[in-house]
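Rotation project, supervised by the postdoc (A.L.). Task for the rotation student: set up a whole-complex structure prediction and record inputs and outputs verbatim in this book. Inputs entered:
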Amino acid sequence: MRIPDLIAASEEPCFSFEFFPPKTEEGVAELFASVEDLNRLEPSFVSVTYGAGGSTREGTVEITTRIKREYGIETMAHLSVVGETIAGLDAILGRLDAAGIENVLALRGDPPRGEPDFTPPPGGLTSSAELAAFIRGREATARFGIGASCFPEIHPEAASPEADIAFLREKVEAGAEFLISQLFFDNAVYFDWVEQVRDAGIEVPIIPGVLPIISRAGLHRFCDVCKAKIPARLDERLAALDGDPEAERAFGIAYASRQCEQLLAAGAPGIHFFVLNRATSVKAILGAIKAGRPWERTGGEVAAAARGRR
Ligand SMILES: Cc1cc2nc3c(=O)[nH]c(=O)nc-3n(C[C@H](O)[C@H](O)[C@H](O)COP(=O)(O)OP(=O)(O)OC[C@H]3O[C@@H](n4cnc5c(N)ncnc54)[C@H](O)[C@@H]3O)c2cc1C
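Outputs recorded:
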């Protein structure tokens, strides 16, 4: 099923999980153990990332296909233009279509490891908006559900917050039907940004992306790469745990549970979890959210209307 149709038809928030294609056999086994575990929580869909510079091209198609075929879960393949020719993109989309995948997250993508800046590939595309238009323009994939990324803290390469939101509108006009946000830890920043996006006339569903913190060191590594901000108070509270792994994980579960609760109570249409292929924390967080059902707290109709706006 196309994810935009799934979101529109769902009476309850959509919960989705993001995995990455592992490089080793053990990694693949760990990934599928997590899929098996998390499948009990009935995700609305799962997505599989596309390695920087096309480094996991084969893995993305293969893992996405296996999850859909073996577990019957709706899947979305991430696809980026970095290092890809038009013919290469065409071939990947053809393989996804042949495998029955109907959803793609259209990305420009991160440059390959060791290269700081994005360089448009010769004979390729230059942005997520161009990729969304390309997918829409192919006969076999014109019907695909297309998602795109968005950045509540503003993309580091944007000329200004206004320019970032103007470009987001271009992505939507090019064919993106829903948006998944970069991770963030301060809901107030997210809510302010969503208001600006709605004021700019962008009406598609926006699903906030949430990273469960597993360790302080891991959090810093991850945020160094994606340039997400770690609020000072959050970092201080983590530092006070003195590197105790159990305490850091428990803190991460509590922090993400509270964050999701507030987002859903305010009408977010779902949560996209950056699972990093490990199920334990997400299971605890989603279990807590589903037990509390925060989306019902604002009252049925109010919550449904807010979901449209958030
Ligand atoms: C949910 C999510 C999943 C992701 N999955 C992956 C993945 O699987 N693989 C991967 O490599 N990376 C992934 N990323 C990271 C993403 O690739 C990086 O953020 C990358 O730096 C930009 O890719 P994009 O598609 O967001 O780019 P774009 O949206 O195309 O561009 C990034 C920014 O550059 C500016 N910009 C670009 N083109 C223009 C233009 N023509 N005019 C004006 N401004 C412009 C805008 O400010 C825009 O926000 C993901 C990010 C998110 C939020």
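Student's summary: The CA atoms of residues 212 and 255 lie 8 Å apart.
Supervisor addendum: The longest strand covers residues 14-19.
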